[in-house]
Specification:
The strands form 2 sheets. Strands 1, 2, 3, 4, 5, 6, 7, 8, 9 and 10 form a 10-stranded mixed sheet that branches. A two-stranded antiparallel sheet has the order 11-12. It starts with a strand and ends with a strand. It is built from 10 helices and 12 strands. With 315 residues, it is α/β, with parallel strands linked by helices. Helix 2 crosses helix 10 and helix 3 crosses helix 4. The chain has one domain: Rossmann fold (3-Layer(aba) Sandwich).
């Protein structure tokens, strides 16, 4: 089974491309996409996700330990794309040593590149659902005596959705007052300004509500190039140039450029591979799995190497 919470509208019995009420979906393994007919009651969904998240028992309390990873997709993702990438993440991370469950947050992006501006508007409108309908309820399983950790992996404009969601939660006391956090945040091909990720007000909530943020960057990412006329925003993107030097200490950048350049032929069959290869590379997903495990210092993860003060994915 695959588990997705979806903030799209419903039109003609199918999910549409504008914001709508959040639905919690349980999808059979043989399905190639999904619709509102696969929705189940929220409490049933959360209970099943929490059960799948459990990987062990806390020695002192006897209560469960484990992991939940929330995947947030970017723009230009069809329902089939979301499901395919969710499954690729699950397969790759589990092969890399991740233990727990992976769910997706599906926000109403278009499936055409020229819908990019409208996507950003819808991303803002639905960002609140990520926190109020997903992260906050899942965080209830993170009591001091119950060590089920919640993590987030955001791809492309999913990083923008995540940051808007964190900022929304801090601006609305009803959500923030409940006390919530996530453990690890992973950004892949993040489509937000690199400069905005400094230690300042724009991304303050993003950093406040996580234990560590890891940004995977690729200088060969043509989708994030400032010369790409189909995109919005000309400032260098964090998924292309990496985190700024004045990012908080809890933020770590992993430069994947040399690795991608050496292995780019391996991704020849993947559309926009320079932007989307993260879902399909076992070595990168091994690095992500070790990051989610959280027991190794970020400088000592064996899939990385330090050169001239900068962390790289090993080639």
């Amino acid at each position: 089974m695959d588990y997705i919470f979806c903030a799209r509208n419903v039109k003609g019995g199918e999910f549409g491309k504008t914001p709508g009420p959040t639905r919690f979906l349980e999808i059979h393994d043989d399905a190639t996409d999904y619709g509102p007919g696969q929705a189940i009651r929220p409490q049933v969904w959360f209970d099943r996700v929490a059960t799948l998240a459990q990987t062990g028992t806390h020695a002192a309390s006897g209560l469960p330990t484990g992991n939940v990873l929330i995947y947030i997709h970017g723009y230009n993702n069809s329902l089939t794309d979301v499901l395919k990438r969710l499954r690729a993440l699950r397969e790759g991370l589990e092969a890399g040593g991740y233990h727990g469950v992976i769910v997706a947050f599906d926000w109403p992006c278009g499936d055409e590149a020229l819908a990019y501006i409208e996507d950003r508007k819808d991303a803002r409108l639905t960002a609140m659902r990520l926190v109020s309908d997903g992260i906050v309820p899942l965080s209830r399983y993170m009591r001091p005596d119950c060590r089920i950790a919640v993590h987030v992996l955001a791809h492309s404009m999913g990083a923008f959705v995540l940051r808007e969601a964190m900022d929304y939660a801090d601006d609305h006391r009803d959500a923030a007052a409940r006390g919530w956090t996530v453990s690890q945040i992973l950004l892949c091909a993040g489509d937000i300004s690199a400069a905005s990720m400094e230690d300042g007000p724009t991304s303050a909530s993003l950093y406040l509500h996580c234990m560590r943020l890891t940004n995977y960057s690729n200088p060969f990412d043509a989708v994030l190039s400032i010369s790409n006329a189909k995109r919005l925003g000309i400032a260098p993107r964090v998924g292309r140039v990496g985190l700024p030097d004045d990012a908080p200490a809890k933020a770590v950048n992993v430069d994947c450029g040399p690795y991608y350049d050496e292995h780019r032929e391996d991704f020849a069959g993947i559309p926009n591979s320079d932007h989307s290869w993260y879902f399909f590379d076992p070595f990168l997903l091994r690095d992500a799995a070790l990051t989610l495990e959280g027991g190794i210092d970020h400088n000592s993860i064996p899939t990385r190497v330090m050169r001239n003060g900068r962390l790289y994915l090993r080639t």
